[in-house]
Write a structure and sequence with these properties.
The two termini are about 15 Å apart. The mean pLDDT is about 95. The longest helix is centred in the middle third of the chain and has 28 residues. With about 375 residues, this protein is of the alpha/beta class. It has two domains: about 90 residues, Urease, subunit C, domain 1 (Roll); about 290 residues, Alpha-Beta Barrel (TIM Barrel), CATH 3.20.20. About 25% of the residues lie in helices and about 25% in strands. Helix 4 crosses helix 5 and helix 9 packs antiparallel against helix 10.
Amino acid sequence: MLLRNGKVLLFEEKGFFRRDIRVANGKITEIAEGLSPLPGEEMVEAEGKFVTPGMIDAHSHICISEEGGGEIGDDCCDYSGTATPELEVLDALYPFDRAVPDCVRAGVTTTCVCPGSDAVIGGVASVIQLTGRVADEMLVSRMAAMKCSLGENPKMAKYNFSSRMGVAYQFRKCLDEALDYRYRREEAEKSGAYFKKERGMEHMLLVLEKKMPVHVHAHRSDDICTAIRLAQEYDLDLVLVHGTDAIPVADYLAKFSYPVILGPTMSSRSKTETLGKTFATAGVLSRAGIKVCLCSDHDVTPMYFMTTYAGLAVRYGMEELEALKAVTVNAAEILRIEDRKGSLKPGLDADLVVWNGHPLDHQTKTERVYIQGKAQF
């Protein structure tokens, strides 16, 4: 396929530029001006249209907290323990969630699906692309992150603790158990003794070995700082999720390299943890040098309004290019899938969105959406 004459979003050149895009076997193979069609090649005219990478929502519960599914369709949280690192979101994904086609029509092609936030250690999150009928075939990254939570959600779930101190202790306890597990496993390997593996502890070792980051739910500024403290103590690859009250500690957060998946912001201040909510946060963190991407936390707020969230971030002070990065390349880098998604470059997946106007204009509509070069809309 040859997509011709579009205004293509190129981050290296910091804007939209007239280019042609060639696609073959699901990948972008060439981006240049004035490309000539190959014999038999499909041609798509994009004159006057804007072309971006497929948008990426770095934190959602789509396909596990199904729209209209009620209690039967809600597999977001598991209450079998305070720490359940053995769980995988893959085992709960329902590809036929009614929200999926709406998100694709809105230009969202990829998302990280996470367990919910009531357990301190909730389980393994996976990155999926929003096409397919079988969960395994939707996977981009199975072991994308270990979902963890601090603050109000696990505190109020009333397991066997009811304070932030107790929540932080349960976090440390799980990591200490993983360290002990690693020692026992290594000793058994040295001696040749039988050793029974535990799936949850094997997952936690991926965390300790930095093969899998921790995505830590932290709204309030004190919980953000606790997440940093824990990450420093155990040398973890930390990604902060939500960051609602990050402005008061933005200068402290900027001392570290931890990125923030910010959101949801387009909802009411429904609880104490979200009293600091403002669309200005994205711009403040970005200007402080912190890598930021935006999330919907679907179904808390709908994923199919991602351009609205990015546009409001611009209205409240975020630079336009940074807002576009916040729903594409920044999300890809934070999710460790930048070698496949998030930008328009030769060699990357041909996840393309053709818009009839600037993507952050509220009147703009999608005209075409491709995932790995296949037309979805």
